[in-house]
Design a protein that fits this description.
The complex is a heterodimer of chains A (293) and B (152). With 293 residues, chain A is α+β, with helices and mostly antiparallel strands. Chain A has twelve helices and 14 strands. In chain A, strand 12 and strand 13 form a beta hairpin. Chain B has a five-stranded mixed sheet, covered by helices on one side. Classes of the chains: A alpha+beta (293), B alpha+beta (152).
Chain lengths: 293, 152
């Protein structure tokens, strides 16, 4: 790979200074599991790398004012075993467990997964289904928040400027009525790129066994993860019984058909979506299902 | 850039080109050739090392990222000329054929056994999912790890 300068900020002031000198060729190095491959393949020839692996303040997961914050340096390994994530965002923990291999999970960061914006990213559908925002800082230390789904333009491209950096991901803590799950499907059981994935966050009326609300975010369907309006419309208000399984399968099937009509992968993904839906159904509702007569 | 790093409990002060990977530092700068390069893109695990107590693909770690960090390579497992129990069990169980995947396999197994002293077969498979082997078909590798676990 072509050589470059490397800056290693250890605090926010040093990071701001590094960002102030950034050009459109400057890249941020976090876990490196995507970036280093691109460098090796000469797909990227940065002038400078800003290596944020020494930013210890970015390695925290915490809760504050009803929100969960995941720092930009938090890895998928950190996420899959963290009690705050297991409590508040099972969909994100389940996605983290299925990213790559242990070696990859130990280095790859959720923020980097978002910034890389692959259409098949596993960290993004959970964030979208949680209505998560990215906390973004610029070279002058000004912060803004951007909805994760809005932030992505297309694969590999976000709305961030080269003098900006994601400092954290943020989403609301879970209420007692909420539950979430994530399912992915690839060509292998593990260490596989998703061919199709879905993350569901559901709000349940446990007394009446009815779905109060649901977000299902699709992954590897089209250019970026999105919440299926078809799924929300079909599933919201329904009773939790075995017919819900069929409704979920149909709604994800229709979602795929509508979203990537004309793509050669559509017939496969349209059918595979039914399996994804059924897996989600069992993960979310198996223990509260009403038995039909 | 100047970096200080600890490899197999020895401190190194190095002046490295920024575009070197940890894999290159180990093999070409320091001469520790036990860590292998196979795919070069973090898929096969032949380049696995233990970085701050966790496994990592050294082909994806850049030089700047090892400053102040602790690394253990396969060479670090031998103590006072004695093989680590895992290494002995791999040999006894026929889990080594060409040997190219073996350093990575052993380091991933080592980290597993440090966290989980009696793993199930599923847990072993999961811990080794990032290490590919083209020779053995994995069964003897899993048997070796099981054997090392139950010997303790």
């Amino acid at each position: 790979m072509k050589c470059f300068d490397t800056i290693c900020p250890t605090n926010i002031e040093e990071l701001k200074f590094a960002l102030s000198g950034a050009t459109e060729k400057t890249k941020i190095l976090s876990g490196g599991t995507d970036l280093v491959i691109s460098l090796r393949e000469n797909k990227l020839k940065p002038d400078v790398l800003i290596d944020i692996s020494k930013m210890t303040s970015f390695k925290k997961i915490c809760t504050e004012n009803g929100y969960v914050y995941i720092g930009a340096g938090v890895t998928f390994s950190d996420i899959e075993e963290n009690s705050i994530i297991l409590e508040n965002a099972m969909c994100l923990a389940e996605a983290a467990m299925k990213v790559g291999s242990p070696q990859i999970r130990n280095r790859a960061t959720l923020a980097g997964n978002l910034a890389n914006a692959s259409a098949a990213a596993d960290g993004i559908p959970p964030l979208v289904s949680l209505n998560a925002v990215a906390v973004i800082m610029n070279h002058e230390g000004e912060y803004r928040e951007a909805n994760v789904s809005d932030l992505i333009i297309k694969p590999g491209k976000t709305k961030m400027s080269y003098k900006e950096i994601i400092t954290a991901l943020k989403f609301k803590q879970k209420t007692p009525e909420q539950k979430s799950a994530f399912v992915k499907m690839g060509s292998r059981k593990s260490v596989t790129i998703s061919k199709l994935s879905a993350s569901a966050v559901v709000e349940i009326d446990y007394d009446n066994k009815i779905i109060k609300d649901i977000n299902i975010a699709m992954g590897s369907v089209g250019e970026k993860s999105f919440i299926s309006q078809i799924a929300t419309a079909s599933i919201k208000g329904k009773r939790i019984d075995s017919s819900l399984n069929v409704i979920m399968q149909q709604s994800l099937r229709d979602t795929v058909e509508e979203s990537i009509r004309g793509r050669s992968s559509m017939p496969y993904k349209r059918e595979a979506a039914r399996g994804i839906a059924e897996d989600l159904y069992y993960k979310l509702f198996n223990n509260i299902c009403i038995q039909n007569d | 850039m100047k970096i200080t790093t600890t490899i197999n409990n020895k401190i190194y002060e190095l002046d490295l080109q920024n575009n070197l990977r940890l894999l290159d530092v180990l093999r070409d700068v320091i001469g520790l050739t036990g860590t292998k390069e196979s795919c070069g893109e973090g898929e096969c695990g032949a380049c696995t090392v233990i970085l701050n107590g966790k496994t990592a693909n050294s082909c994806l770690v850049l030089a700047s990222q090892i400053d102040g960090q602790e690394i253990i390579t396969i060479e670090g497992l031998k103590e006072n000329g004695e093989y680590d129990l895992l290494q002995t069990k791999f040999i006894e169980n026929g889990a080594v054929q060409c040997g190219f995947c073996t350093p990575g396999m052993i380091l991933s197994s080592k980290v597993l056994l440090m966290k989980n002293s009696n793993p199930s077969e599923d847990e072993i498979q999961r811990a080794l999912e990032g290490n590919l082997c083209r020779c053995t078909g994995y069964a003897k590798i899993i048997a070796a790890v099981k054997s090392a676990a139950t010997s303790n």
